[in-house]
Amino acid sequence: MPMIEIAHVSKWYNPTFQVLKDCTLDVAKGEVVVVCGPSGSGKSTLIKCVNGLEKIDQGTITVDGIRVDAPETNLPKLRARVGMVFQHFELFPHLSVTDNLCLAQMKALGRSRDQAVAKAMALLDRVGLKAHARKFPGQLSGGQQQRVAIARALAMDPIAMLFDEPTSALDPEMIQEVLDVMVDLAREGMTMMVVTHEMGFARSVAHRVVFMDQGEIVEDAPKAEFFGKPRSERAQTFLSRVLVASH
Amino acid sequence: MNYNWNWGIFFQPSPEGAGTYLGMLVTGLQWTVVTALCSWALAFTLGSIVGIVRTLPQAWARRLGDAYVELFRNIPVLVQMFLWFFVLPELLPQAAGMWVKQLPNAPFWTAVVCLGFFTSARVAEQVRAGILALSRGQSMAGLALGLTRAQTYRHVLLPMAYRIVMPPLTSEFLNNLKNTSVALTIGLLELTARARAIQEFSFQVFEAFTAATVVYLLINLVVVGAMSLLERRLRVPGFIMAK
Amino acid sequence: MFSDFDFDVIARSARYLLVDGLGFTLTLTALATAGGVVFGTLLALARLSSLPLLPRVAGLYVNVLRSLPLVLVIFWFYFLVPYIGQWTTGASRPIQVGAFWSALITFTLFEAAYFCEIIRAGIQSIPRGQIAAGQALGLTYAQVTTTIVLPQAFRTMLPVLLTQTIVLFQDTSLVYVISITDLLGAAAKVAQRDGRLVEMYLFAAAIYFVISLTASLLVKRLQARIAIIR
Q: What is the per-residue pLDDT for B120?
């Protein structure tokens, strides 16, 4: 059974604009799937549907056997088990780095303050930011903030991680420090769905690459196949542009 | 000007029996402050609820909140005061109406309720503006971590929203305090009413109004000073407020 | 609960309420807005001027008036204006100017403090480069102000000025405290005379509500249109 199962999902923003068109995609346990495509292709919308931040109009989404789109599903409980990292970090500016990591552990998982802090410290150490534990998000660089955001998601002991363009708001010199953390995570066997244009990341750790355009999943292929010889013309054009831009 | 100044008037006994004219001003100040604080507590609570409702995803809830704000914002506060004081008891079932009319300190309670609702519409505007000033990603981040919508408001959105709108909320607090003077029309013996009474008893009109003016100015200074202190204490390190 | 609601009392006194009462309210609103905007503009220019002392004096005026309840200010001027009249004309006794003039002077001077802050923000929103460009063309301070700064400032702040006018419209009801027959004053008089408080105050509330709501909806529309043009 796949960890994330997206089946025939469609979504409309208004009666005339369809953002997602019959999207089907599975992510198996321990698998790393990179989703790419031009801006406006619906990839950010799709990943936000996985934990129910965006509602879908047709189709089903199942995470660890639980239907995300069913009205009886306890969404907060499900989301607490799925980590998400945002393009603009979205750390809570009024909370210290430690408190950013502890808030949901205490409120959503019911951990004690001591447990939460211990977990937070271990994870900050892991992303190399233990020394900044008492600072506030506004006092950190973009790359540091995004690493804190990853640690915040990991603190919930997630069964899967969703990344929504985690490096596209970063200055070029800060991208690598974030990618390094993500690569480590992938190598440890974390189930990951990653929306990104970082083809270097895809090449090194992805198992499969999904290409989206105009709300459709145009291509879904194993990494080697995708980079070797994409079947669709649209993916080929996109790939040549992105690879030229990043080298 | 052939006006006879007499600043000693404040130490003369007031015609109300016990105490001096100065004593009249002091009790007036007390009523002003107590009325302002009680009505603010109501306004802040109601206004926060309505402000939050106006940012919820449900369109019907937002529209209800909008209607609330329009209702209390588009009728002059003095007219609202009369509606609460003269009209409401007549429209209630007879027993309830009688109970309201016979409340001890009726002008005070009416003023608290009236100003509470009136100011709540303004507080709601600010609270809504503060929440909307935050990026949509903030509430998404809270929800994505498994917080409920209520927890997201409580721990993520509101702490920042209140910080952002602290300056306009301070002005609303002061407006509310100034509006307590409107309650003199329904017999609340607050500061302006007492200054007016001194004028009527003693004809020392300018001394009385000068004293009240000075007191209002002092209250303003104290409130503004206290709020900027509070703002500094609640400032978030590294966070730059827009504007 | 409206079984003994007397609509007739409204019909009977409609002329008094709407012509005498509402007429006074609207006249006072219009004249005080005009006066307040003119005086408020002068105050704003004074607050922003580089002359010594002038910004401070204007700032003190604005901050003091904004700290006081309007009710107190109405009382102040009600008693003060006759003395000022005596002082300026050199008459031997305080000059009774009548309730209308007293109210008009009060609202003009009081609301000018609020208009001033709006206009000041409007002027400050004009990029410095605009002023520099005007000066570079050889225009004087007065010419730059009247032909470049103020026209642009008024366009951006028009919605806020109109919103303040709606506030002023509602504020005029406070002339009740010096027994003037505005809309609320007229309603109160009929209410007392005929013992019809419920009908009269609800009627007055409805009139204020309809006018304020309509005006604020129009301002919102205007705001949207200005936003598009920019």
A: 98
- The CA distance from B65 to B52, in Å, is 9
CATH of range C7-229; options 1.10.1740.10, 3.30.565.10, 3.20.20.150, 1.10.3720.10: 1.10.3720.10
Distance CA B45, CA B39 (A): 10
ipTM of the complex: 0.91
Q: For residue C21, what are its two tokens?
A: 């009462």
Tell which wins on pLDDT, B152 or A14: B152
Residue A86 has which token pair?
A: 């945002």
Number of CB pairs, chain B paired with chain C, less than 8 A apart: 105
Q: What is the pTM of this model?
A: 0.90
Domains of chain B: 9-234 (1.10.3720.10)
Q: How many residues does the structure list for chain B?
A: 243
Residues of B in contact with A153 (CB under 8 A): 145
| Range A70-74 average pLDDT | 93
Q: Report the C-alpha gap between B6 and A60 in whole angstroms.
A: 84
Amino acid identity, position C31: L
pLDDT(C194) > 90: no
B143 contacts on A by Cβ (under 8 Å): 53, 75-76, 79
Helix/strand/coil percentages in chain B, nearest 5: 80, 0, 20
**Cβ(A212)–Cβ(A41) under 8 Å?**
yes
